[in-house]
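Quick one:
INPUT:
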């Protein structure tokens, strides 16, 4: 009811809603509530989200054995290098993490926020994890140099990969394989049942994204697609606005 009241206060006439993955289990009440006040006028795959989820229920030996042979070899190779794997415990370490994260995206040519902004955001997240116990940062050191790291958030019984980075000077070493596997073991030890690999790109031709997909495929999790995006009109004007929007898009496509 609070959602509907807020929408009315903001005079929202058209809502684009991406239902959660667990719509069948928990979201039907929200679905019914929205439909009481509006009408679904479109149901498409636009902005749909997919992800890959690894079950943490099996014991450690079975879990590792379920990975691809390449992933198993990569994990053992990285373990043999005796890198220092540790959970971040100070804001100073978060500053190093932030710098590594920003440098990775700059090297790829992506737009990225300034370092101070990234540090402020990740420090806030780190302190929330620390105070609430709902996540962690983990990294790998080569001597005193941080060469890779990830952050993982907890929600109910699921661990969710948030962000990560790897020093490109160590790209030939399977640092990420060790990081993700270690994060899974930590989450499992803390009672989590699933590890969400943080999204999966469907129907992409981007080489970088395809490589990320292949990396996630190696953990042999379950590929899940979220329910379709829905457009809900709350009154006549919402339907009218959507009709005009569709017309403009058709005209633009014809011009192209």
């Amino acid at each position: 009811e609070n959602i509907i009241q807020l929408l009315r206060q903001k005079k929202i006439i058209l809502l684009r809603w991406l239902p959660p993955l667990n719509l069948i289990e928990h979201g039907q009440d929200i679905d019914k509530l929205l439909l009481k006040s509006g009408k679904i006028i479109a149901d498409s795959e636009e902005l749909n989200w997919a992800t890959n989820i690894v079950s943490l229920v099996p014991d450690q030996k079975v879990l590792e054995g379920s990975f691809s042979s390449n992933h198993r070899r990569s994990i053992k190779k990285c373990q043999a290098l005796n890198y220092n794997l540790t959970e971040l415990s100070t804001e100073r370490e978060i500053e190093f993490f932030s710098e590594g994260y920003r440098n990775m995206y700059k090297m790829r040519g992506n737009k990225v926020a300034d370092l101070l902004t990234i540090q402020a955001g990740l420090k806030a997240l780190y302190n929330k994890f620390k105070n609430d116990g709902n996540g962690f940062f983990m990294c790998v050191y080569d001597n005193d140099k941080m060469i890779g790291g990830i952050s993982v958030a907890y929600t109910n019984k699921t661990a969710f990969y948030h962000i990560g980075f790897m020093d490109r000077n160590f790209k030939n070493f399977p640092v990420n394989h060790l990081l993700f596997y270690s994060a899974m073991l930590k989450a499992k030890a803390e009672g989590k049942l699933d590890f969400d690999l943080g999204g999966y790109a469907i129907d992409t031709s981007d080489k970088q994204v395809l490589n990320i997909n292949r990396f996630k495929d190696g953990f042999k999790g379950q590929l899940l697609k979220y329910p379709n995006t829905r457009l809900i009109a709350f009154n006549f004007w919402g339907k009218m606005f959507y009709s005009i929007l569709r017309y403009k898009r058709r005209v633009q496509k014809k011009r192209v």
